[in-house]
Amino acid sequence: MVEHQLRARGIRDERVLAAMAELPREIFLPLELEEDAYDDTALPIAAGQTISQPFIVALMTELLEPNPGMRVLEVGTGSGYQAAVLGRLGCDVLSIERQPELAAAARARLASLGLADRVRIEVADGSVGWRLGAPFEGILVTAAAPRVPDPLRRQLADGGRLVIPVGPLSGQELLQVIRRREGFEERTFGGCVFVPLVGAAAYDEETVIRARRRWLGSWRGQRP
Q1: What is the rounded distance in angstroms from the CA atom of residue 152 to the CA atom of residue 121?
Q2: What does pTM read for this prediction?
Q3: Are 47 and 102 in contact (CB under 8 A)?
Q4: pLDDT of amino acid 219
Q5: Which residues contact 118 (CB under 8 A, 6 or more apart)?
Q6: Residue of 52, 79, 95, 127 marked catalytic
Q7: Strand pairing of 156-166 and 119-123?
């Protein structure tokens, strides 16, 4: 995975490569998908969510430019894999998850890896961030928003980096936002497809449900 999916596709940060080489990705997946853990694809987990493709995890981590002791807000804990990568890199991570069952399972996995002291998981609406912990030196969002949520911009420290997929539910652009004294610098890093970020500052749940129904109806209509 590291040599053929990450290094060969341009991931250069040796610390990121080492962290992903060390982590047993299979423990973040349902038992029936463990043999697919190192495939070059996103995979389903509980609660209708996914664990991101290894390359996307590596790219988002590299764009965050993590350092030991860096205070990072992660929005969307999911399986806990992205938080584990950041924890292995020495970051102090606050991860927010909407689904209590995902949060509980991720806490157990991170504890088994000795990362409980590096990663704290809260159940809340991650689209509005975590005001009491702000500002954060890095913010990483693992779900797609229609635009960069204003609360996350406000909670980013000067010089800090925010990495987030932004765009419609059908497909997004991976965006890096750097907070400068005079404003925000934004760069895009290619197309991607993430599950939607649901919350007060992102997609509302009814919109997501309607979109999924339309997609399912279209898919059924195309079947022979």
Answers
A1: 17
A2: 0.94
A3: yes
A4: 43
A5: 86, 87, 90, 91, 92, 93, 110
A6: 52
A7: unpaired
Could you identify the residue written with the tokens 């005079």? Answer: 182
192 alpha carbon, distance to own chain's centre: 12
Residue listed under structure tokens 């995902």: 102
Residue-wise pLDDT for 163-214, tens only, equals: 999 999 989 999 999 999 889 999 999 999 999 999 999 999 888 888 777 7
Active site residue 112: no
Give residue 213's pLDDT: 72
Examine the pLDDT at 215 and tell me if it is beyond 70. Answer: no
> Are 60 and 174 spatial neighbours (Cβ–Cβ below 8 Å)?
yes
**What pLDDT is attached to residue 217?**
55
Domains and CATH numbers, the chain: 2-222 (3.40.50.150)
Cα separation values, 39 from 6, 12, 54, 107, Å: 12, 20, 8, 24
What is the distance, to the nearest Å, from the Cα of residue 204 to the centroid of all Cα atoms in its chain?
A: 19
Amino acid at 218: S
Tens digit of each residue's pLDDT (9 = 90 or more) over 132-156: 999 999 999 999 999 999 999 999 9
Distance, CA of 113 to CA of 219 (rounded, Å) = 40
- Burial code (b: 16+ CB inside 10 Å, e: under 16) for 34-61 equals eeebeeeebbebeeebbbbbbbbbbbbb
Distances 189 to 56, 63, 149, 166, 179 between C-alpha atoms, Å: 11, 9, 19, 11, 17
